[in-house]
């Protein structure tokens, strides 16, 4: 702690001018601080500023930390009761287990059974419980949704990112036993899955399912189901494409790299010749007009070459940025697909193919053009949507029609999470065999 | 709360992890009571510890309570929430009752920094009607119209304005007046 500053009004280093209405008074001010304090403090501050910011300190490193109390409070907060050793195991990461084992070996202590357990198996079991419950629940809550939709919503809800948010929301971050701090997304998600399994083991599978319903399924309240499905599908297509084209793109990239190197080499040679020419030109400038002409021609060629080289470089960079351009076309195909999907579905149900019709339009050809397109089948309106252009509106209308058939349109009532539901474990119809009508 | 709170951030109503839709989770996760065993500043905190802290911990099993005596320092209560926020409550010269009341405030709080709420309600789905189009609120009888329709192409009929009404009233009054004058004149 710095010594308290004392200010006294006589004799000193600094002089402060106090302005009064009537007169000017000079007051001398002095702080009885040793001379070395200020430079020392400023030097310390400068050094601190130079250093990297300190890594975040785990809460468990504080003096006021009682791990059993924290574990008890964690289960009590969620309204559950879990056996403490089981809970401890669910929160022990493999990295922490290995670390503590190494520490014991170093200290020459005997192997402890409690120290040789990590949450890997529990996490797998928890993941199974979670996935089967969520998909069963979704099948019974949304009976018209095809299996692909059920799967993608399930995988969205049990994704690492979502589980990480949930885990940090219920206070897992401080009590996870892991080597790293702050714990990564993966660690948090794994611990949450393991907690579900631990809950199932200590208080029965029903309690675990209720936990999943109350915490994981409750996320559905703010999620647009149709958007989730589309996003997941896009991602899956992207990842599939990425795997397929990884090999090809790597080869292509090598080839392009090689060509680039060749270009570079040629460029250097050109440059050298150019310089030599320059020199020669300087020497024989006055006398050799013919040479001059040749030189100019050469210059032109050189510049053209440079331009080509730059263009190539640009293409190469673009190529590197979007590793496979073909992925884009896939996405576009998927976005323009709904009408064909709808026509397939209608054909399977014995209905007439979808017929998009322009219902309303305003300001065609202007910046604020608006069209409303409805999709009809058997003279019945299946769905309608507005759009900037007729093609966009058609596509959105087909999508709206599909959503309505699935029972997840934006007009449908919110899902009741607390309602009694019997789980349906048999998979729903796949999109290729889906008959909603 | 008014717009005069210049230094207060604004925000919308929100609940962490959809709290309350499935199950309610109290957001205060632990408190650390720091106090002095001798100084009179900490009198209220000491009383609270003596009389109420055990009951408080029993009533709120989800909150971990730590007690940390520190010699000759002002008493504080550190409040830690589930969203990672920490708040330090100065308990200097607070009475036992006041401290308990402040803890009750913290117990019900979400841990988000105090902010001016822009609206008292919030929804992630602002409209179930979808995107607004020029035809969103068009009267439905236009659907049954046969074209060309006389009604549709007529200039819009407007109501009589107040001035016109007054003028008409005045004209009628004048007429009546004249009539009464005439009748009295003849009789």
Automatic annotation (TrEMBL), chain A:
Keyword annotations of the record: Membrane, Mitochondrion, Ribonucleoprotein, Ribosomal protein, RNA-binding, Transit peptide, Transmembrane, Transmembrane helix
Keyword Transport: no
Subcellular location: Mitochondrion
Compositional bias annotation for Basic and acidic residues: 99-108
Transmembrane parts of this sequence: 257-277
GO biological process, alphabetically ordered: mitochondrial translational elongation; RNA processing
Principal location: mitochondrion
Cellular component annotations (GO), alphabetically ordered: microprocessor complex; mitochondrial large ribosomal subunit
GO molecular function: double-stranded RNA binding; ribonuclease III activity
Region (Disordered): 99-121
Ranges of residues in domain RNase III: 85-225
Domain of life of the source: Eukaryota
Record keyword Ribosomal protein present: yes
InterPro entries in alphabetical order: Ribosomal_mL44_DSRM_metazoa (IPR044444), RM44_endonuclase (IPR055189), RNase_III_dom (IPR000999), RNase_III_sf (IPR036389)
Family: Belongs to the ribonuclease III family. Mitochondrion-specific ribosomal protein mL44 subfamily.
Protein's UniProt name: Large ribosomal subunit protein mL44
From TrEMBL, chain B:
Pfam families documented for this protein: L51_S25_CI-B8 (PF05047)
Keywords assigned by UniProt, alphabetized: Mitochondrion, Ribonucleoprotein, Ribosomal protein
Entry keyword Mitochondrion: yes
Xref: SUPFAM superfamilies: Thioredoxin-like
Record has Ribonucleoprotein as a keyword: yes
Gene Ontology MF annotations: structural constituent of ribosome
Domain of life: Eukaryota
GO cellular component annotations of the record: mitochondrial large ribosomal subunit
Annotated compartments: Mitochondrion
GO BP field: mitochondrial translation
Domain Ribosomal protein/NADH dehydrogenase: start-end pairs: 37-110
Family label: Belongs to the mitochondrion-specific ribosomal protein mL43 family.
Name of the protein described by the UniProt record: Large ribosomal subunit protein mL43
Organism: Amphibalanus amphitrite (Striped barnacle)
Gene that specifies this protein: MRPL43_1
